[in-house]
Amino acid sequence: MKTLNRRAFGVDLGLALAAAILLPATSARADDMEIHIDNFVFQPAELKIKAGTTVTWTNRDDIPHTVVSAGKFRSKTLDTDDKFSFTFTNAGDYKYFCSLHPHMTGMIKVE
Amino acid sequence: MSGHDHGGDGVSRRKVLECMTWAGTGVLWTVTGGVPRSLGIIDSAQAATAAAPGMSFLQISDSHVGFDKPANPNALGTLEEAVGKINAMPAKPSFMIHTGDITHLSKAAEFDNAERIISQSKLDVHYVPGEHDFLDEEVKLYRERYGRGTKGQGWYSFDAGGVHFIGLVNVVDLKAGGLGNLGAEQLAWLQDDLRGKSKSTPIVLFAHIPLWTVYPEWGWGTEDGGRALEQVKGFGSVTVLNGHIHQVMQKVEGNVTFHTARSTAFPQPAPGAAASPGPMKVEDARLRGMLGVASINFKQNEQRLAIIDTPLQG
Ligand SMILES: [Cu+2]
User: Fold this and answer.
1) pLDDT by residue (tens digit) across B64-122?
2) Which residues of A touch B105 (CB under 8 A)?
3) Spans of chain A, pLDDT less than 50
4) Which residues lie closer than 8 Å to A32 by C-beta, 6 or more apart?
5) Is the predicted ipTM greater than 0.90, yes or no?
């Protein structure tokens, strides 16, 4: 939506071009993935994705959680309904956990 | 309260730690002859007698100031009620320990509100942090307020009434898939702290997450808690006080008594009794009973290692 608005305003021709070029990519964003935190569980706990995919975690518990993969990514504390997104550009296995409730673990496999 | 049983017959009084929680606010412990003994303050006659010769202290835990979800939309209010009860006690305790999760999200205003209410007790309060107290970006708000004179991430010890108290921090540097964590530096400090102490010195260890394994599936335990307990093994009387699980649980193992206190904010389910350990919503009329007025009658069976918990109801 933001992209479309900026393009409509036409503030910057370069930005408009960039937006136009990005538009086809927007449909590819349908691949972007969601993970929900419910009842102290990452759901799904394991996710296989293609490189370039953005994963968004949403905390739906009444207790704060975090999403942490050592050396790779670390969310702020996510209160109820807060979200955290990370784009996986490199292939590999990304184990992650909640630093407050370390028994909560998950895995993202990027091809 | 009915059902309070002294369980003294034939059982060594020294090993019997009875416990009675009161109004969901905390557990009053009294130290008589150097041995901590929990005390039901609902039975005020008993409290007055028993408290007279010794020293008593209170444990409060998991106030989660800032929590406003359905399980208790006003956690600050119930904390204030708890402090009101403390102030109405017939025998004033010497001090209070707070076993962490003072705040819900480590916001400055939450710490300030907690301090404003808890200070109304006019008691010295010895804190240890819960994981909810270390959530600010710079992890400094707790330390600024309560970290003075502490070591490492905030551990320390002090002596009172002939008892050696040790406040431990087990909510830092948690490992994926693991439980609470003390870490090598703290364990080394503990060893040092205990060095040269007479084995007859009663020891009270307190920390946020249970130092014993309550329910690992929910993270209710401390990875290297056993290593701390090994170090106090030779002492004649050891009492381990924790919070985190928002319910009363007690276990006696040899000379060691393990006890968890209720929250003043919201109850959590018994281990495995719900899909998750999250805040448990109960009918409004039952909330204060769950935080609230309940007694634990505890009889030690010396032959068995048993967790004896009494359903929390008013
Ligand atoms: Cu968590």
Assistant:
1) 999 999 999 999 999 998 888 888 877 788 888 999 999 999 999 999 999 999 999 99
2) 64, 77, 79
3) 1-28
4) A53, A54, A55, A56
5) no
Structure letter (DSSP) for residue B34:
T
End-to-end CA distance of chain B: 10
- The alpha-carbon gap from B155 to the nearest alpha carbon of chain A, in Å, equals 19
pLDDT recorded at residue A91: 96
Of B105, B137, B277, the CB nearest to A64: B105
Q: Do A102 and B137 touch (CB under 8 A)?
A: no
Which chain A residues are within 8 Å of B69, Cβ to Cβ? 62, 80
Neighbour count for residue B248 (Cβ, 10 Å): 23
B123-136 as b/e: b if 16+ CB within 10 A? bebbbbbbbbbbbb
Three-state SS at B215: strand
Q: Are residues A62 and A23 in the same domain?
A: no
The pTM of this model reads: 0.79
pLDDT digits (tens, 9 = 90+) for B219-228: 999 999 999 9
Residue B130: give the domain boundaries: 13-311
Report the number of distinct structural domains present in chain B: 1
Quick one: closest CA in A to B276, which residue?
A: A39
Q: Which residue segment(s) compose the domain that A2 sits in?
A: 1-29
